[in-house]
Predict the structure.
Amino acid sequence: MKANSPSERLFNGIIKENPTFVLMLGMCPTLAITTSASNGIGMGLTTTVILAASNLMISLLRNFIPDRVRMPAYIVVVASFVTVVQLLLQGFIPSLYSSLGIYIPLIVVNCIILGRAEAYASKHAPVASLFDGIGMGLGFTLSITCIGIVRELIGAGKIFGLQVLPLADAAAGKVGYEPITIFILAPGAFFVLALLSAIQNKLRIGAAKRGIDPSNPDCGGSCASCGNTLCKGKEAAVK
């Protein structure tokens, strides 16, 4: 996979450097708004749009922004896109706007967006920066949607607002699922994030022990016949 190609940038953001489970960035919205899968996918897609647009704009302006004022300039660019997206949500999707509330304007200081602006968009071409923003945004969306699904399912027996686990009804003598409401409260966010992070780390460690490089989608674990001397999996197998 060619470095800085669109496919490599998408894979990097979704798998290799997932902002939630690998880089542990953007924890404020991750923990606060994932009470349901709908909130997770809404915040994720909103952040994806802003990430892609701000990365593209900052990359286009990278040769014109003085180094000493680059962070204030990045914040101005991000804040402009956040304002546009906030007004669009308020006008066309008011229910999502109400659900996300204060966390929409707080996207301005989201570590994922400012981090990608500083680490990638300010140093690379516009097309690569655009796909880097899309990849990181999709990785963030996938992560917080998964957290929202688990929290909503355990805490309310629902997924995307649909009742998938029939609830118990003591008055009618109906036996069913008893929701564990702590999972849709603040502590539940920490429990689910820790659980999913542990599962992800377990899979990565297991792959490394089998000689597979998790960061390389083309690695099949056959280190003896691998011609890539820079392969992390091959180095681990040799050790």
Q: What stands out?
A: Strands lie at 158-159, 162-163.
